[in-house]
Amino acid sequence: MRNNRAMTPHRIAVLALDGVVGLDLGTPAQVFGTARDGDLTPLYAVATCTPGGRPVRTTAGYQVLPDHGLELLDSADTVIVPGIHGGPPLTDGTLDPAVAAALRAAHERGARIMSICTGAFVLAAAGLLDDRRATTHWAYADRFRRLHPGVDLDPDVLFVDGGEVLTSAGVAAGIDLCLHVIRTDHGSAVANRSARRCVVPPWREGGQAQYIERPVPRTAETGTAATREWARQRLHEPVALRELAAHARMSVRTFTRHFRSETGLSPAQWLLQQRTEHARLLLETTDLTVDQIARHAGFGTTAALRQHFHSRVGVAPTAYRRTFRRAPDPVAPRP
After folding, report:
1. DSSP helix, strand, coil percent of the chain (3-state; round to 5)
2. Long-range contacts (CB closer than 8 Å, 24 or more residues apart) made by 281-290
3. Vertex 86: Cα angle to 84 and 87 (nearest 5)
4. Among candidates 20, 144, 139, 25, which has minimal Cα distance to 86?
5. Number of helices and strands in the chain (H, E)
6. Cα gap 301→317, rounded to integer Å
7. For the segment 284-310, what is each residue's pLDDT rounded down to a tens digit?
């Protein structure tokens, strides 16, 4: 998916349907619009379309007048469906046949298909999520399962990358997904710059579990944020659960309970996530050997790094480096 100077920007079509969520609609243009290469050349071109090019209502009390109709999907490299509130996809799981056909045609010719929040209902109604793992806003999980029992719904994650079809959880998780796609296409350095421009974290810890409404009693002593930051500074060291709990001045049992309520992960899962992300950054941005990276990231051995990296990222560390490590620009010979 990478671009070079001779290539045109990756074309993204945002499909807005009636009742579109205003934040979801603006997220792709905002996030992908900040992605630039080393020469500040835009890497993506984002345009918006609606069925028939007609105006659609948003949930924010205004209408959107697009520049394109469904024909925009015919040439898009990526199609994104923002969330909607109301309408047949949410009420009975059906979709305008023309919209469904346009989405299926884009998918069949190889376009990447994405949804934000309840946009997953649209993809499911078009038949693009059958027998796939997907996610949507946690508050709509029961309705989604009722309408689309053939979809493997995981409401606990921020997004699901299924390769050719990607879905995200509610609202701000669309930002997480867009940054993930930039990172996949162009590496962490470009994605991190985009995140800074948008004033958001490059990635968020845990999943939707930390946002689902649950009555969890909290006091001033229950926060684990300071301990998480303390652990991040020591990823190269073997950090035990008892050390984490002691730093937070809690018992192991209390610390584990509050840690999971705040992050959606166990301390061990969170540490593994942080070490994997650190290893990924080192693979992209340094000349350290895989053995050195294993030690710097706290995996200890190359074998442990390979096992956990492949489990979480899907490829071996060396294969990841070949794909995402950018070669330096050629230097012109001195006259």
Report:
1. 45, 10, 40
2. 281/188, 283/317, 283/320, 283/321, 283/324, 283/325, 284/187, 284/188, 284/189, 284/321, 284/324, 284/325, 284/326, 285/188, 285/189, 290/317, 290/318
3. 100
4. 20
5. 14, 10
6. 13
7. 888 899 999 999 999 999 999 999 988
pLDDT digits (tens, 9 = 90+) for 43-57: 999 999 999 999 999
For residue 178, count other CB atoms closer than 10 A to its CB. 30
For Cα atoms 196, 200, 204, give the angle at the middle one, nearest 5 degrees: 125
Residues 6+ apart with CB under 8 A from 329: 38
3-state helix/strand/coil string of 40-97: CCECEEEEEECHHHCCEEECCCCEECCCECHHHHHCCCEEEECCECCCHHHHCCCCCH
Torsion over CA: 95, 99, 102, 106 (sign) = negative
Q: Which of 27-31, 50-54, 198-202, 225-229 has the lowest mean pLDDT?
A: 198-202
Residues 6 or more apart whose Cβ sits within 8 Å of residue 47: 11, 12, 13, 14, 67, 68, 72
Per residue in 315-335, pLDDT (tens digit) is: 789 988 887 665 444 444 443
Measured CA to CA, the distance from residue 77 to residue 79 in angstroms comes to 7
Locus of tokens 């992050």:
263
> What pLDDT is recorded for position 36?
92
* Amino acid identity at 18: D
Place of tokens 């979809």: 151
62 burial (CB, 10 Å; 0-12 / 13-18 / 19+) is exposed
Q: Whole-prediction pTM value?
A: 0.67
Cβ–Cβ < 8 Å for 53, 68: yes
- Amino acid letter for position 249: R
Residue 325's pLDDT is 66
Query: Taking a C-beta distance cutoff of 8 angstroms, is the pair 56, 64 a contact?
Result: yes
